[in-house]
Amino acid sequence: MGPTTAATTRTGPGKNLSRDAIVEAALQFIDHDGAQGLTMRSLAKEFDVVPMALYRYVQGREDLLEAVVALLLERVLHDLDGDLADTGWQSYLQTLANSVRRIAVEHPAAFPLVATRHPAAPWLRPPLRSLDLVEHFLRTLRGHGFTDIQIVGTYRAFSSFLLGNLLLEAASRGAETSPVEVAFDEGNARIANQDGQLDLSDKPETKHLRPLLSEDHSEDEFETALETLLDRLEMTISQ
Description:
mainly alpha; globular; disordered N terminus
């Protein structure tokens, strides 16, 4: 049985066809059949149209996968739009972490896309990979008095925590964690991770912290995280 999609509300082939409907249908397809099997042809069947009809709204499979990731991260950003101004930074990070985890729980087959596809810029880290979400994160920590070094350090540690834990959780729920192959002839989407012309004029915190975000401290971060884990294990065992 195929996934329930926006196509079920149509009154005829191609009715109510839009980019939003196509992206939502793609997410539901991935939930049911996985990302590997998603093609423009398979998705067109859900709307009872020829594949070329979808190209009026999406540029191809690459664009479609990027749009699915954007949809999921928009929902995370929406969760952060509540009244968090008077809460502490710990509450903010808890809200954000649980919102990202909801993707892994409710859409385990789609979460690896969030975790492994190109971030908006090479110095950003999945799963917090969109500029809007990162700007919100950086601005919020700034509002709580974090210094530049503390903001970037928190972003790195928090991203690593989410990525490691939630990829494992998605995999335990049956998700395919291997990269999705993209056909070169399906679309001409703008590939993320190429930021030579990236406009950050409306992202002041991201623009300000870009040099620090671009630094590579992977080895030190790994050692610090490992030492923290060992300290916690020792404390647990000694109790």
